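Quick question about two entries, pasted in order.
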Amino acid sequence: MAKKPRKQQSGGTPATVALASAGTAFTVHSYDHDPSSPSYGEEAAEALGVPPDRVFKTLVADVDGELVVAVVPVAGSLDLKALASAVGGKRAAMADPAAAERTTGYVRGGISPLGQRRRLRTVLDASAGAHPSICVSAGRRGLEVELSPSDLAALTEATLAPIGRS
């Protein structure tokens, strides 16, 4: 019996393993990460030749004491007030980077909304729905995964809301 092409061999990340286990269609894109790059997301968009509004960054925020994942286009920024509102909270602030890394199991610049050590509540910016596919971190700097926004939302049980700012 032939193997499915999306099955991960050794070296897969928790994100790609989660996608393969779910039977989700996806494409992995890799590039040489430059540690001196000021923006992981913009670096990914440029390296992959993908418009920045189709590459989404994964940010971890603290909303009223609860860590929440926000997935927004790299071309913009996160509206913390809108994120808090989307999850029924009052106040949001960016999470402590060490807490984000410890909770998700990923390093900063490589945090994926998929395959996290402890699944966090996730909010996906509504602009994702305007694209047939988007790119998000595959769990390592220099590694992106491309998939449909609806598959990402389903796998992360994400709420869709306008949480990004241009």
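Here is the second entry:
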Amino acid sequence: MSKQRVSRRQFLNYTLTGVGGFMAAGMLMPMVRFAVDPMLKAEASGKFRATKQKVAELTNTPVRVDFEYEQKDAWYTSTVTHTAWVFKNKEGEIVALSPVCKHLGCTVNWNGDKNNENMFYCPCHGGLYHKNGKNVPGTPPLGPLDSYPTKEKDGILYLGQPEPNKYVK
């Protein structure tokens, strides 16, 4: 035990500081947990999402496939709609391309330009893409369209998250 005595003023100061710190921690902990909790939840990012497209109906002509799913941002849940251009290539593989132009993010359309048939066309700045998603040199896009990984289950097409185009060599 210390030989030095604690004065009443020091004792009151220590006690009030301790109680105030305890109360502050009690108020701050829920706020910290509120801010950090969404980051700690593990979400499967590689999920495949069901579309309404039947695989048997796909041909070598790209068709627009819209699909939607629920997205959760922290505590807010919303329905998100995405689009893909889907077709079967010469080998019979299902090809799903993102419609988002690599120039400025506009939406590309299949056969959208009368002068460039059988190509994806971006109406914003005249960007062109070949059927496999490769950008045409000399047009604004600097890279190919992204592709979706595909999966078939019970005859229905499932699409994953967009990734760099694997059909362009």
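Reply: The two ends are 79 Å apart (CA to CA). Residues 146 and 165 are 5 Å apart (CA to CA). Hope that helps.
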